[in-house]
Amino acid sequence: PQNEHIELHRKRHGRRLDYEERLRKRNARAGHEHSQYAKKIRGRKAKLYHKKRYAEKVEMRRLIRQHEEKKQTGTSEEPERGVVPAYLLDRKQQTTGKVLSSMIKQKRKEKAGKYQVPIPTVKAVSDAEAFKVVKTGKTRRKGWKRMVTKVTFVGESFTRKPAKFERFIRPMGLRFKKAHVTHPELQTTFQLPIVGVKKNPSSSLYTSLGVITKGTIIEVNISELGVVTQGGKVVWAKYAQVTNCPENDGCINAVLLL
């Protein structure tokens, strides 16, 4: 085969005697070189490079965590009755990391499946329906911006990016701050301020953008209803599911999840 003269030479004559040592040193220097390069670069190249390095680091941390989970084991028998010296206090009842992580996952599942929602299934909203392409540039040739055509919730602390760099435009006319929430037991409707969008069933992108469509779970502030927990604390917020199409009706109707 063509262009394999290097491999052929290697097979015939082997590598340099100090090849392994030089390779080890080069790998040892690599971290420092990456660091120097990251400090030097500017502009778009820097953005792309940092994004790549961030992804690599996330992956590395995930692997390290997995290995630690595998390694971490311990005793789970009951401690003996009586006084335990201070240096032995944390020795007992240390279960495996695996059990802990699976318990946490189970808890999360239970938390998520706690509510019986009024509308269990909804028609998915496509990107073409939710977003309108906005052409930009001097000759209107660039089409990377999108205008959200559905009702959205934008938090108080939200700060817009400069208009030039804003990818998703959420029109002020479609931003809602209040919802008409019906209490299923009291059979009464209250106008309550929205705290946030918990889950949009169509996509996680819609959730992060705060898009509100039929079936979306929103969090509403119910402090004015005076609901109290068993401990006597006032319940601040609760989840509610949107039951109408807000972009058609001009208002958000929702049912409180108890």
Automatic annotation (TrEMBL):
List the InterPro entries: NSA2_fam (IPR039411), Ribosomal_Se8/biogenesis_NSA2 (IPR022309)
Function summary = Involved in the biogenesis of the 60S ribosomal subunit. May play a part in the quality control of pre-60S particles.
Q: Where in the cell is it found?
A: Nucleus, Nucleolus
Which residue stretches does the UniProt record annotate as biased composition, category Basic residues?
37-46
Q: Which GO terms describe its biological process?
A: ribosomal large subunit biogenesis; rRNA processing
Give a Gene Ontology cellular component term annotated to this protein.
nucleolus
- Protein name as it appears in the record: Ribosome biogenesis protein NSA2 homolog
**Which region ranges are annotated with the description Disordered?**
24-46
Assembly with partners or alone: Component of the pre-66S ribosomal particle.
Coiled-coil positions are: none
